[in-house]
Amino acid sequence: QRHLLGIEPLRPDEITTLLDLSDKYVSLNRARDKRSSTLSGLTQINMFFENSTRTQASFELAGKRMGADVMNMSMQASSIKKGETLIDTAMTLNAMHPDLLVVRHPHSGAVDLLAQKVNCAVINAGDGRHEHPTQALLDALTIRRAKGRLHRLSIAICGDIAHSRVARSNIMLLGKMENRIRLVGPATLMPSGVAELGCEVYEDMNEGLKDVDVVMMLRLQKERMDGGFIPSEREYYHRYGLDAEKLARAKPDAIVMHPGPMNRGVEIDGTLADDINRSVIQEQVEMGVAVRMAVMDLLARNLRARPKEVMA
Ligand code: CP
């Protein structure tokens, strides 16, 4: 693949190759000397048009540890504020010969559009409610390491599914790897056409969590609710917030996941989120750096194998 725009086009064997390589980067990241020269001579530009802590920091660290020249564009301070379009901004940066563009944008499809206009590799760091492929890959790596496999698991994805690019990418990835996926949440926060996703749907959290191996919690993404139904946080926590009592419905060794950022006391109890016997939330963050290193490593191999495109 030239770009990583989503999970949709990836085959199961490609996902496995990526996760195997990510495991190697986990070891490198745990070593005293974390440097490699994999991206030496390459330029990586991070363009985040939406706030981020984990994704932005891990892409920056990943690029620097692999020897790339990494530039973080401050989109708040860019000429976007003077009315320049996304495409003109991307083409301007493209003229400076970057090799990797990492892009987050609030609009679904914006990263795909941008990828058609540039001649470097583009990585989708989250676009609207569409896809967040590196999040799904790091979730998959976390599950595989915790459970020893990434198939025939029962996985509950809970909360605001409708507005979640994390849910969308995870449903595709975990489905391709032949897991049983349950979507748990209020009907108002389920996407339209949910029946076609090949998942079981539950409105009752206690039923939805019964005997699952993995519980993946999601934040209420109010920034994408467009003035539609926003539940009361207190009522939401009562019905859908994960606490020890609701988790007791899952298997005794079920793991608790959350992509972050978390809203403690809204979708998850803070004590449970910090319980190192059940929660793998910090492991997810750690896997994020390794997965992003593996993604950029594989894209760089493709870049180096292709003749350099010369701009008109
Ligand atoms: N999970 C995730 O994408 O977190 P950030 O918004 O902090 O990058």
UniProtKB/TrEMBL annotation:
<dbReference type="GO" id="GO:0016597">
    <property type="term" value="F:amino acid binding"/>
</dbReference>
<protein>
    <recommendedName>
        <fullName>Aspartate carbamoyltransferase</fullName>
        <ecNumber>2.1.3.2</ecNumber>
    </recommendedName>
</protein>
<dbReference type="GO" id="GO:0006520">
    <property type="term" value="P:amino acid metabolic process"/>
</dbReference>
<feature type="binding site">
    <location>
        <position position="219"/>
    </location>
    <ligand>
        <name>L-aspartate</name>
    </ligand>
</feature>
<feature type="domain" description="Aspartate/ornithine carbamoyltransferase carbamoyl-P binding">
    <location>
        <begin position="2"/>
        <end position="144"/>
    </location>
</feature>
<feature type="binding site">
    <location>
        <position position="260"/>
    </location>
    <ligand>
        <name>carbamoyl phosphate</name>
    </ligand>
</feature>
<comment type="similarity">
    <text>Belongs to the aspartate/ornithine carbamoyltransferase superfamily. ATCase family.</text>
</comment>
<feature type="binding site">
    <location>
        <position position="135"/>
    </location>
    <ligand>
        <name>carbamoyl phosphate</name>
    </ligand>
</feature>
<dbReference type="GO" id="GO:0004070">
    <property type="term" value="F:aspartate carbamoyltransferase activity"/>
</dbReference>
<feature type="binding site">
    <location>
        <position position="104"/>
    </location>
    <ligand>
        <name>carbamoyl phosphate</name>
    </ligand>
</feature>
<dbReference type="GO" id="GO:0006207">
    <property type="term" value="P:'de novo' pyrimidine nucleobase biosynthetic process"/>
</dbReference>
<comment type="function">
    <text>Reversibly catalyzes the transfer of the carbamoyl group from carbamoyl phosphate (CP) to the N(epsilon) atom of ornithine (ORN) to produce L-citrulline.</text>
</comment>
<comment type="function">
    <text>Catalyzes the condensation of carbamoyl phosphate and aspartate to form carbamoyl aspartate and inorganic phosphate, the committed step in the de novo pyrimidine nucleotide biosynthesis pathway.</text>
</comment>
<feature type="binding site">
    <location>
        <position position="165"/>
    </location>
    <ligand>
        <name>L-aspartate</name>
    </ligand>
</feature>
<dbReference type="InterPro" id="IPR006131">
    <property type="entry name" value="Asp_carbamoyltransf_Asp/Orn-bd"/>
</dbReference>
<feature type="binding site">
    <location>
        <position position="55"/>
    </location>
    <ligand>
        <name>carbamoyl phosphate</name>
    </ligand>
</feature>
<comment type="subunit">
    <text>Heterododecamer (2C3:3R2) of six catalytic PyrB chains organized as two trimers (C3), and six regulatory PyrI chains organized as three dimers (R2).</text>
</comment>
<feature type="binding site">
    <location>
        <position position="82"/>
    </location>
    <ligand>
        <name>L-aspartate</name>
    </ligand>
</feature>
<keyword id="KW-0808">Transferase</keyword>
<feature type="domain" description="Aspartate/ornithine carbamoyltransferase Asp/Orn-binding">
    <location>
        <begin position="153"/>
        <end position="298"/>
    </location>
</feature>
<dbReference type="Pfam" id="PF00185">
    <property type="entry name" value="OTCace"/>
</dbReference>
<keyword id="KW-0665">Pyrimidine biosynthesis</keyword>
<dbReference type="InterPro" id="IPR002082">
    <property type="entry name" value="Asp_carbamoyltransf"/>
</dbReference>
<comment type="pathway">
    <text>Pyrimidine metabolism; UMP biosynthesis via de novo pathway; (S)-dihydroorotate from bicarbonate: step 2/3.</text>
</comment>
<dbReference type="GO" id="GO:0044205">
    <property type="term" value="P:'de novo' UMP biosynthetic process"/>
</dbReference>
<dbReference type="GO" id="GO:0005829">
    <property type="term" value="C:cytosol"/>
</dbReference>
<feature type="binding site">
    <location>
        <position position="261"/>
    </location>
    <ligand>
        <name>carbamoyl phosphate</name>
    </ligand>
</feature>
<dbReference type="InterPro" id="IPR006130">
    <property type="entry name" value="Asp/Orn_carbamoylTrfase"/>
</dbReference>
<dbReference type="InterPro" id="IPR006132">
    <property type="entry name" value="Asp/Orn_carbamoyltranf_P-bd"/>
</dbReference>
<dbReference type="InterPro" id="IPR036901">
    <property type="entry name" value="Asp/Orn_carbamoylTrfase_sf"/>
</dbReference>
<feature type="binding site">
    <location>
        <position position="132"/>
    </location>
    <ligand>
        <name>carbamoyl phosphate</name>
    </ligand>
</feature>
<dbReference type="Pfam" id="PF02729">
    <property type="entry name" value="OTCace_N"/>
</dbReference>
<feature type="binding site">
    <location>
        <position position="54"/>
    </location>
    <ligand>
        <name>carbamoyl phosphate</name>
    </ligand>
</feature>
